[in-house]
Amino acid sequence: MKPMPSEPVMSRDALAAFLDDVFPQLHHAGPGPVLVSVGPLAATMRLPYHERHLRPGGTISGPAIMALADVALYAAILANVGPVALAVTTNLSFNFMRKPEPRDLIGEARLLKLGRSLAVGEILIRSEGYDDLVCHATGTYALPPRRD
Amino acid sequence: MKPMPSEPVMSRDALAAFLDDVFPQLHHAGPGPVLVSVGPLAATMRLPYHERHLRPGGTISGPAIMALADVALYAAILANVGPVALAVTTNLSFNFMRKPEPRDLIGEARLLKLGRSLAVGEILIRSEGYDDLVCHATGTYALPPRRD
Amino acid sequence: MKPMPSEPVMSRDALAAFLDDVFPQLHHAGPGPVLVSVGPLAATMRLPYHERHLRPGGTISGPAIMALADVALYAAILANVGPVALAVTTNLSFNFMRKPEPRDLIGEARLLKLGRSLAVGEILIRSEGYDDLVCHATGTYALPPRRD
Amino acid sequence: MKPMPSEPVMSRDALAAFLDDVFPQLHHAGPGPVLVSVGPLAATMRLPYHERHLRPGGTISGPAIMALADVALYAAILANVGPVALAVTTNLSFNFMRKPEPRDLIGEARLLKLGRSLAVGEILIRSEGYDDLVCHATGTYALPPRRD
Predict the structure, then answer these.
(1) Which part of the chain is the Thioesterase domain (chains A, B, C, D) (predicted)?
(2) Which chains lie within 8 Å of chain D at 3 or more CB pairs, if any?
């Protein structure tokens, strides 16, 4: 009864190029989130460690984590519907669970619903090489009208 | 029956100096959020417009809005409990309502609850000079044990 | 620069009758939420105290609070756009701040955005006669297409 | 590197009896949520279909879904820390994705973090026999101090 999730419509390389082209600011003043992989209703991004993300106590800032979650969910949507630059975030909710050490963060986004006008997903964020969650986020994107 | 909200325990100037001292990264690569005022259970911050916050369509990025909300709520807490650098965000939820033009953003944070171990607040974000909300956020901070 | 919020398009009495007609289950097994008033982008509802809402410790259950928030926001929307029975909740987020005593609860809903296809609002819930918040909620409703 | 999640400390039968004892109101005016199973950092509950949960269009009400999510997460916590009746919900966030048909709902709760003073989890809600999500929820519970 489980429907096969369809294959992504953009490859990792095509989507990575699209993101770099459309969002050059992601890499302003230092390396920004990098697309690791795409999959059916999914995408994974990595935020390379950089000292501009540090906060007191040697942890990575909440806003850096939130930016990673936002773009990872956006990447999961684009990978699965194609390059609609104008998808709009309408809601993001974050539960912060552990303060991450100063190392790369991995954000795995999964779409829970990919409807015609709305996409809903969750993002799991961990420090690279660790299983404990740093943050769990959910988000909603409004999708522009499209032909299919 | 409404209890008088007590006066803030830190002045705007003292809190602004504290934030600049503890979070130098806020101003990495360009001017970051600036404390405008503090009040009883409240604080207001301004995010000066900077091109690193731009996104396609000439709007300001979601992460820049989220960073402003996070620090404005933190400022409202510090202003009212004193300089506890180790308050920890546990939850942030955002509803994005309008795409902001490329101009300064104003974030007004109000504490809805300031308990012994938990603070809950909301943040209203608008473009300077406009009444329409760009974003409404709510957040929860866990407070470290303190004597009082 | 602040636009005048338009007057509600449904009176309190008309909306109360509509709610009772469309949602008879609200009063299943005991009195349910009652519409107190409507206003520009706003509505207030009261949940009469009933022992079916009790939880251990003599407090009122979270689900009773959540149901009040949901219907109060729905009432604020209907009061201001007319009787569109098919508005659909897409997101609700709750911060619970104090355990309410066993007495009536008052839910005040305010619309933060009333767009063509989406309404966003917040709901403040208090025990009757008290100023402290029991719960703060935000919610999003998808609106069916309408002529205007 | 993944720590073994420890076994639950309460059996399904012991927890079901505890819930019925402490929350008799769950079954007020009709059958309420039933504990299906417990597991490491997890619990599953079923909400039997009952006409008091119906809404216009023959769908199940949001508040019934929210009540199921709340109690399923609570069950996952109790199953894994023991019968602490006084755990307190501090935050619940819901994304509603599909209108459920009039049939039983299944809520699967998983703990994302089980700390000393805070538990965070997610709840997936589906109509029985279907894979599509009706609702995704996240929640936070404050735990009373305990010895261990």
Answers:
(1) 57-129
(2) A, B, C
